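ok, trying the design again with the full structure, not the truncated one.
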């Protein structure tokens, strides 16, 4: 009976996470459109950060509750899943065109900070100094995006404003309720996942890398696949790249400022896989400026191999 209640709690938590993130993204995107921000910037910032709220809430909540292993497992697992599974599926649905600026700047930056995470974890933890460096890099990244948005804004993109008939108070309410639902849902997921892991004799690593990572990545999955179907490559690519950058720099950065995050030796393999996935993404996109269906098939195959490896 207790197990059934825990599963129901886990399910309800995931529902609140996904629906809350969906409401937040809708509200934040509407606000961004009112400011005339371009689609790629919306994807890299508002949508990416909105869909990454579950990872942020779950990871920070896990640190506060003393389950730091879930923090690294959730972030690294989500980043691997975002690239290999979600972008893989999105590319299988439709060929994704990648902007030159993304190939030149955002993708190499993502690869660089993925490698940085591996290096920072060598001593067995992500400490205050590591977190401070990540937050500084995140601030610089936001400054870069702000300048890029200013430079690339054109009249054609500003027409989006006229299509948005939501009132400001409606947008604010959507954001607030979405954020509250995300935080509440995250707390439920962490608590239920930890208890279920103990009951079934599973490690926190496996729970964080699979169940929690998949659950918190559902917003990215829905957003990117939907964007791919509609032919909006900017949102699909920007969402994943921006989410992964946000996960590493902000989520782990803030978590380690709250409390040092243990980086067990077993996570080195996962963090190396995350960096390798980012490298493959750079290679695929740099060659032709797009992700083709066969690229998607390779990424999906990579995720299946990785999943089999951690389960076995």
């Amino acid at each position: 009976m207790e197990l059934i209640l825990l599963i129901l709690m886990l399910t309800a938590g995931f529902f609140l996470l996904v629906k809350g993130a969906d409401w937040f993204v809708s509200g934040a995107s509407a606000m961004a459109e009112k400011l005339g921000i371009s689609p790629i910037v919306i994807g890299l910032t508002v949508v990416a950060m909105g869909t990454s709220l579950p990872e942020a809430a779950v990871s920070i909540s896990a640190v506060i509750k003393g389950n730091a292993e879930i923090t690294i497992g959730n972030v690294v697992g989500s980043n691997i899943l975002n690239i290999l599974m979600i972008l893989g599926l999105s590319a299988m649905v439709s060929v994704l065109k990648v902007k030159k600026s993304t190939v030149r700047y955002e993708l190499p930056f993502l690869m660089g900070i993925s490698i940085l995470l591996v290096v920072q974890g060598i001593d067995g933890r992500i400490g205050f100094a590591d977190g401070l460096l990540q937050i500084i890099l995140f601030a610089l990244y936001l400054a870069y995006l702000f300048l890029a948005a200013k430079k690339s804004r054109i009249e054609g993109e500003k027409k989006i404003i006229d299509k948005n008939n939501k009132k400001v108070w409606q947008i604010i309410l959507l954001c607030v309720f979405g954020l509250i639902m995300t935080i509440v849902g995250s707390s439920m997921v962490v608590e239920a996942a930890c208890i279920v892991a103990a009951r079934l004799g599973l490690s926190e690593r496996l729970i964080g890398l699979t169940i929690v990572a998949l659950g918190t990545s559902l917003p990215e999955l829905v957003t990117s696949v939907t964007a791919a179907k509609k032919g909006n490559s900017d949102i699909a690519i920007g969402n994943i790249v921006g989410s992964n950058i946000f996960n590493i720099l902000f989520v782990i950065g803030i978590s380690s400022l709250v409390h040092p995050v243990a980086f067990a030796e077993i996570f080195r393999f996962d963090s190396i896989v995350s960096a390798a996935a980012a490298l493959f993404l750079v290679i695929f996109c740099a060659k032709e400026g797009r992700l083709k269906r066969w690229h998607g098939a390779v990424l999906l195959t990579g995720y299946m191999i990785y999943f089999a490896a951690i389960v076995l």
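Keeping the full-length input from now on. The beta strands are 96-97, 125-126, 261-262, 290-291.
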